[in-house]
Amino acid sequence: MRNLTDGCLNCCRFKAMLAEISAILVPIAAAIGYSSYKARQFEQAFPNIGELNDIDGYRMNAVHIPRPDTADLPPLVFIHGASGNLLDQIGAFLLPLEGRAEMLFVDRPGHGYSERGGPENAFPSGQADAIAKLMEKRGIKKAIIVGHSLGGAVAAAFGVNHPEKTAGLLFLAPATHPWPGGIDWYYHIATVPLIGWLFSRVVVVPLGLWRLEQVTLNVFRPNPRPADYISKTGPSLVLRPKTFSANATDFMRLLEYLKVQSPFYTRITAPTVIITGDSDGIVWEHLHSQALARDIAGSKLLKIKGVGHKPDYLATDVAIAALENIAGMPRDLQGAVRVAEERLSGASSIAA
Fold this sequence. Notes:
By secondary structure, the protein is an alpha/beta fold. It has helices at 2-45, 86-93, 124-137, 150-161, 185-190, 195-202, 204-220, 229-233, 241-261, 289-295, 311-314, 316-326, 333-351; strands at 51-55, 58-65, 76-79, 103-106, 143-148, 166-172, 272-277, 300-304.
């Protein structure tokens, strides 16, 4: 009789344990399923408009605009920043530069629709090497390299390691030098083995969708974000688990990488222009842009009053004048800055 009682008790304990495990696993499984469903939705909303190119065993995505007969600029290669994809730079530059140059808009390894490739692609130098190989695939021997934000670190690595392919460098609010402090907490969690896998598949999508509006507003602050920015540039693509993990790894590796590699910027000899806003609360211009201008001999630093982290959108005209200047055309760059400041000041007054 006692054995029967003990057996019943053990059975009840086992059922209770199963219930507790189910109470944990079922919501996790549901969250993973929801994230997979939303990832497919993101890709349906922003399908790949580029072409996948094999780069040493993995595929890299890019939109290639062949050289038009009316071209008056050398080839241009555009590198997006953190959490982004090639749609970001296409939105800023494709139409304003239409008919003027061969253009290559790149998804950095692990971002947009590019595959991650090997461990070297967790660093700006590895990504710069990948872009150099992509240029070879597309028949581009030499180009002006344009890098925004973290893409600036990649552009700098390109200028250091591939001078023969660098016709010039245009940095837009670049992140190129070590900074005090750290990075957001969720990037730390996303790179922890197993826990990061779960975090990227359970928490990131609902948390990211909740924060997407505010985050994109902050990227443009203190300037207004274009009303169609989210609908045209696909920032939700970074919430896909593998992409978010790659983005987090980029951030985790960046500070130590810059401590070691930024001293080599003095080797850059290509014509260089650096455009930054004096109100950038994301990448501090006094730590990055000013230091970059100090490191690259003969570079030109353009600081635009009242502009935050997106001079590519807020001062596209200045960026195009800089490209023309790099290409050897005489341009009054400080005059272009003043015109942009007056335009932006007028727009702010109207908005107020």
